[in-house]
Amino acid sequence: MPKFLRIGVHQSNVSGYTSKAWCVRRVGSAVFLKWGGVEVQGTGAGRKVYWTRSPQEKTVRCGTAQRAQDYAKAAIARRRSHRYEPLVGAIALRRRPAERGTDLKRALATILIVDIVGSTAKAAKLGDARWTKVMGHYYAAVRKELKSSRGKEVVTTGDGVLATFKAPAAGISCATAIQKAVRTLGLEIRVGLHAGEYTISGDEMVGLAFHIGTRVAAKARAGEVLVSSAVKDLLKAQSTISFRDHGMHQLKGVPERWRLYRVEA
Protein backbone atom coordinates (compact mmCIF):
# COMPACT_ATOMS: atom_id res chain seq x y z
CA MET A 1 0.00 0.00 0.00
CA PRO A 2 1.68 3.28 -1.08
CA LYS A 3 1.81 5.71 1.84
CA PHE A 4 2.51 9.44 1.84
CA LEU A 5 3.41 11.81 4.67
CA ARG A 6 3.18 15.59 4.94
CA ILE A 7 4.97 17.15 7.91
CA GLY A 8 4.39 20.48 9.60
CA VAL A 9 5.25 22.12 12.90
CA HIS A 10 2.90 22.37 15.84
CA GLN A 11 3.90 23.55 19.31
CA SER A 12 1.45 21.32 21.17
CA ASN A 13 3.02 18.15 19.78
CA VAL A 14 5.63 16.69 22.13
CA SER A 15 7.91 15.57 19.33
CA GLY A 16 7.66 18.91 17.57
CA TYR A 17 5.87 17.59 14.50
CA THR A 18 2.35 17.34 13.26
CA SER A 19 1.45 15.83 9.95
CA LYS A 20 -1.09 14.09 7.76
CA ALA A 21 -0.71 10.69 6.15
CA TRP A 22 -2.45 9.14 3.13
CA CYS A 23 -2.55 5.46 2.16
CA VAL A 24 -3.74 4.21 -1.23
CA ARG A 25 -4.35 0.54 -2.09
CA ARG A 26 -5.98 -1.07 -5.13
CA VAL A 27 -7.54 -4.53 -5.20
CA GLY A 28 -9.05 -5.38 -8.57
CA SER A 29 -11.65 -2.72 -9.42
CA ALA A 30 -11.76 -1.24 -5.90
CA VAL A 31 -9.51 1.44 -4.42
CA PHE A 32 -9.11 1.69 -0.66
CA LEU A 33 -8.13 5.05 0.80
CA LYS A 34 -7.06 5.80 4.36
CA TRP A 35 -6.00 9.16 5.75
CA GLY A 36 -5.72 11.18 8.94
CA GLY A 37 -3.50 13.08 11.34
CA VAL A 38 -0.28 11.45 12.54
CA GLU A 39 2.53 12.09 15.00
CA VAL A 40 6.14 11.69 13.93
CA GLN A 41 8.85 10.77 16.41
CA GLY A 42 12.52 10.81 15.56
CA THR A 43 14.24 11.32 12.21
CA GLY A 44 15.92 9.25 9.55
CA ALA A 45 15.77 5.46 9.65
CA GLY A 46 14.63 5.51 13.29
CA ARG A 47 11.59 7.71 12.60
CA LYS A 48 8.27 6.32 13.81
CA VAL A 49 4.82 7.43 12.67
CA TYR A 50 1.62 7.04 14.70
CA TRP A 51 -2.02 7.80 13.88
CA THR A 52 -3.22 10.37 16.41
CA ARG A 53 -6.68 8.77 16.21
CA SER A 54 -8.38 6.12 14.09
CA PRO A 55 -7.87 7.15 10.43
CA GLN A 56 -10.74 7.84 8.07
CA GLU A 57 -11.34 5.26 5.37
CA LYS A 58 -13.13 5.20 2.01
CA THR A 59 -13.72 2.51 -0.58
CA VAL A 60 -14.10 3.62 -4.21
CA ARG A 61 -15.77 1.11 -6.54
CA CYS A 62 -14.45 1.89 -10.03
CA GLY A 63 -16.19 -0.82 -12.05
CA THR A 64 -13.10 -2.06 -13.89
CA ALA A 65 -9.52 -2.78 -12.88
CA GLN A 66 -8.23 -0.23 -15.42
CA ARG A 67 -10.37 2.54 -14.00
CA ALA A 68 -9.24 1.61 -10.50
CA GLN A 69 -5.61 1.69 -11.61
CA ASP A 70 -6.12 5.14 -13.19
CA TYR A 71 -7.87 6.39 -10.05
CA ALA A 72 -5.02 5.15 -7.83
CA LYS A 73 -2.41 6.79 -10.07
CA ALA A 74 -4.32 10.08 -9.96
CA ALA A 75 -4.63 9.87 -6.16
CA ILE A 76 -0.89 9.29 -5.82
CA ALA A 77 -0.14 12.19 -8.20
CA ARG A 78 -2.30 14.53 -6.11
CA ARG A 79 -0.47 13.55 -2.94
CA ARG A 80 2.88 14.35 -4.54
CA SER A 81 1.65 17.69 -5.85
CA HIS A 82 0.55 18.58 -2.30
CA ARG A 83 4.10 18.12 -1.00
CA TYR A 84 3.65 14.68 0.49
CA GLU A 85 6.70 12.46 0.69
CA PRO A 86 6.62 8.69 0.10
CA LEU A 87 6.44 6.89 3.43
CA VAL A 88 7.99 3.46 4.03
CA GLY A 89 6.86 1.30 6.93
CA ALA A 90 3.76 0.87 9.00
CA ILE A 91 1.67 3.56 10.69
CA ALA A 92 0.70 2.43 14.18
CA LEU A 93 -2.34 3.59 16.15
CA ARG A 94 -1.26 5.10 19.45
CA ARG A 95 -3.66 4.71 22.34
CA ARG A 96 -3.37 7.80 24.49
CA PRO A 97 -4.20 7.40 28.17
CA ALA A 98 -7.27 9.37 29.18
CA GLU A 99 -6.37 12.67 30.79
CA ARG A 100 -7.44 13.08 34.35
CA GLY A 101 -10.20 15.55 34.84
CA THR A 102 -11.41 15.23 31.22
CA ASP A 103 -15.18 15.63 31.24
CA LEU A 104 -17.41 13.97 28.72
CA LYS A 105 -20.18 16.28 27.57
CA ARG A 106 -23.35 15.45 25.69
CA ALA A 107 -24.68 17.79 23.02
CA LEU A 108 -27.67 17.83 20.68
CA ALA A 109 -27.33 19.11 17.13
CA THR A 110 -28.58 18.77 13.58
CA ILE A 111 -25.92 16.98 11.56
CA LEU A 112 -25.48 17.74 7.87
CA ILE A 113 -23.60 15.50 5.43
CA VAL A 114 -22.75 16.77 1.93
CA ASP A 115 -21.31 14.49 -0.75
CA ILE A 116 -20.55 15.09 -4.44
CA VAL A 117 -22.33 12.71 -6.83
CA GLY A 118 -20.13 11.10 -9.49
CA SER A 119 -16.94 12.76 -8.29
CA THR A 120 -14.66 9.98 -9.59
CA ALA A 121 -15.97 10.23 -13.15
CA LYS A 122 -15.87 14.03 -12.98
CA ALA A 123 -12.26 14.02 -11.79
CA ALA A 124 -11.24 11.61 -14.55
CA LYS A 125 -12.94 13.77 -17.19
CA LEU A 126 -11.45 17.08 -16.03
CA GLY A 127 -7.97 15.88 -15.11
CA ASP A 128 -6.05 16.55 -11.91
CA ALA A 129 -5.26 20.24 -12.42
CA ARG A 130 -8.80 21.34 -13.32
CA TRP A 131 -10.39 19.06 -10.72
CA THR A 132 -8.17 20.51 -7.98
CA LYS A 133 -9.38 24.02 -8.92
CA VAL A 134 -13.02 22.90 -8.97
CA MET A 135 -12.63 21.31 -5.54
CA GLY A 136 -11.10 24.51 -4.22
CA HIS A 137 -14.14 26.48 -5.40
CA TYR A 138 -16.43 23.73 -4.05
CA TYR A 139 -15.06 23.91 -0.51
CA ALA A 140 -15.06 27.71 -0.62
CA ALA A 141 -18.76 27.71 -1.60
CA VAL A 142 -19.67 25.17 1.10
CA ARG A 143 -17.83 27.09 3.82
CA LYS A 144 -19.38 30.38 2.74
CA GLU A 145 -22.88 28.92 3.19
CA LEU A 146 -21.91 27.27 6.49
CA LYS A 147 -20.74 30.63 7.79
CA SER A 148 -23.93 32.37 6.62
CA SER A 149 -26.09 29.74 8.34
CA ARG A 150 -23.91 29.57 11.47
CA GLY A 151 -22.99 25.98 10.85
CA LYS A 152 -19.87 24.39 12.30
CA GLU A 153 -17.63 22.36 10.02
CA VAL A 154 -16.55 19.16 11.79
CA VAL A 155 -14.54 17.32 9.13
CA THR A 156 -14.06 16.89 5.39
CA THR A 157 -13.95 13.35 4.02
CA GLY A 158 -12.62 13.12 0.48
CA ASP A 159 -15.21 15.20 -1.38
CA GLY A 160 -17.70 15.23 1.50
CA VAL A 161 -18.33 17.66 4.35
CA LEU A 162 -19.80 17.02 7.80
CA ALA A 163 -21.16 19.98 9.76
CA THR A 164 -23.45 20.64 12.73
CA PHE A 165 -26.18 23.20 13.41
CA LYS A 166 -27.99 24.23 16.56
CA ALA A 167 -31.29 24.55 14.69
CA PRO A 168 -32.60 22.06 12.08
CA ALA A 169 -34.15 24.83 9.96
CA ALA A 170 -30.71 26.44 9.60
CA GLY A 171 -29.23 23.11 8.47
CA ILE A 172 -31.90 22.62 5.80
CA SER A 173 -31.58 26.20 4.60
CA CYS A 174 -27.80 25.76 4.35
CA ALA A 175 -28.22 22.48 2.42
CA THR A 176 -30.41 24.05 -0.25
CA ALA A 177 -28.09 27.07 -0.51
CA ILE A 178 -25.07 24.79 -1.03
CA GLN A 179 -26.96 22.93 -3.76
CA LYS A 180 -27.56 26.12 -5.70
CA ALA A 181 -24.00 27.36 -5.20
CA VAL A 182 -22.22 24.22 -6.41
CA ARG A 183 -24.43 23.80 -9.47
CA THR A 184 -22.64 26.82 -10.92
CA LEU A 185 -19.49 24.66 -10.77
CA GLY A 186 -21.18 21.87 -12.72
CA LEU A 187 -21.49 19.69 -9.60
CA GLU A 188 -24.42 17.78 -8.16
CA ILE A 189 -24.53 16.83 -4.51
CA ARG A 190 -26.55 14.60 -2.23
CA VAL A 191 -27.34 15.79 1.28
CA GLY A 192 -28.53 14.06 4.42
CA LEU A 193 -29.55 15.56 7.77
CA HIS A 194 -30.17 13.91 11.12
CA ALA A 195 -30.72 15.32 14.62
CA GLY A 196 -29.33 13.55 17.64
CA GLU A 197 -27.00 13.53 20.60
CA TYR A 198 -23.26 13.02 20.50
CA THR A 199 -20.40 13.07 22.98
CA ILE A 200 -17.73 15.76 23.20
CA SER A 201 -14.39 14.75 24.70
CA GLY A 202 -11.79 17.47 24.38
CA ASP A 203 -11.72 18.34 20.67
CA GLU A 204 -13.36 15.08 19.57
CA MET A 205 -17.03 14.56 18.76
CA VAL A 206 -18.32 11.01 18.51
CA GLY A 207 -21.69 9.27 18.46
CA LEU A 208 -24.13 7.12 16.52
CA ALA A 209 -25.86 10.29 15.30
CA PHE A 210 -22.96 10.98 12.90
CA HIS A 211 -23.23 7.49 11.41
CA ILE A 212 -26.98 7.86 10.96
CA GLY A 213 -26.50 11.19 9.16
CA THR A 214 -23.98 9.57 6.81
CA ARG A 215 -26.38 6.72 6.02
CA VAL A 216 -29.25 9.15 5.38
CA ALA A 217 -27.07 11.03 2.88
CA ALA A 218 -26.19 7.74 1.16
CA LYS A 219 -29.90 7.18 0.44
CA ALA A 220 -30.22 10.51 -1.39
CA ARG A 221 -29.97 10.81 -5.15
CA ALA A 222 -28.31 13.65 -7.04
CA GLY A 223 -29.97 16.94 -6.14
CA GLU A 224 -31.88 15.51 -3.17
CA VAL A 225 -31.88 16.66 0.44
CA LEU A 226 -33.11 13.87 2.73
CA VAL A 227 -33.81 14.23 6.44
CA SER A 228 -34.50 11.67 9.12
CA SER A 229 -37.77 11.59 11.07
CA ALA A 230 -35.87 13.11 14.00
CA VAL A 231 -35.28 16.29 11.97
CA LYS A 232 -38.86 16.47 10.71
CA ASP A 233 -40.26 16.02 14.24
CA LEU A 234 -38.25 19.01 15.42
CA LEU A 235 -39.72 21.11 12.59
CA LYS A 236 -43.42 20.49 13.16
CA ALA A 237 -43.96 24.18 13.82
CA GLN A 238 -41.97 25.25 10.73
CA SER A 239 -44.71 25.72 8.12
CA THR A 240 -42.30 27.25 5.57
CA ILE A 241 -40.45 23.95 4.99
CA SER A 242 -42.22 21.25 2.98
CA PHE A 243 -41.40 17.54 3.05
CA ARG A 244 -42.38 14.52 0.98
CA ASP A 245 -42.43 11.06 2.55
CA HIS A 246 -39.51 9.03 1.19
CA GLY A 247 -40.54 5.76 2.85
CA MET A 248 -39.02 3.44 5.43
CA HIS A 249 -35.35 2.51 5.02
CA GLN A 250 -32.85 0.19 6.60
CA LEU A 251 -29.70 2.22 7.19
CA LYS A 252 -26.55 0.13 6.89
CA GLY A 253 -25.16 -0.74 10.30
CA VAL A 254 -27.89 1.21 12.14
CA PRO A 255 -30.51 -0.52 14.31
CA GLU A 256 -34.17 -0.54 13.24
CA ARG A 257 -35.73 0.99 10.12
CA TRP A 258 -35.94 4.76 9.65
CA ARG A 259 -38.53 6.88 7.87
CA LEU A 260 -36.91 9.49 5.65
CA TYR A 261 -38.33 12.64 4.10
CA ARG A 262 -37.29 14.66 1.04
CA VAL A 263 -37.11 18.42 1.34
CA GLU A 264 -39.31 20.03 -1.31
CA ALA A 265 -37.96 23.20 -2.91
UniProtKB/TrEMBL annotation:
GO terms for molecular function: adenylate cyclase activity. Residues 110-217 form the Guanylate cyclase domain. It comes from Bradyrhizobium japonicum. Signal peptide: none annotated. Pfam families: Guanylate_cyc. PANTHER family: ADENYLATE CYCLASE, TERMINAL-DIFFERENTIATION SPECIFIC, ADENYLATE CYCLASE, TERMINAL-DIFFERENTIATION SPECIFIC-RELATED. It comes from the Bacteria. PROSITE patterns: GUANYLATE_CYCLASE_2. This is Adenylate cyclase. One of its GO terms (biological process) is intracellular signal transduction.
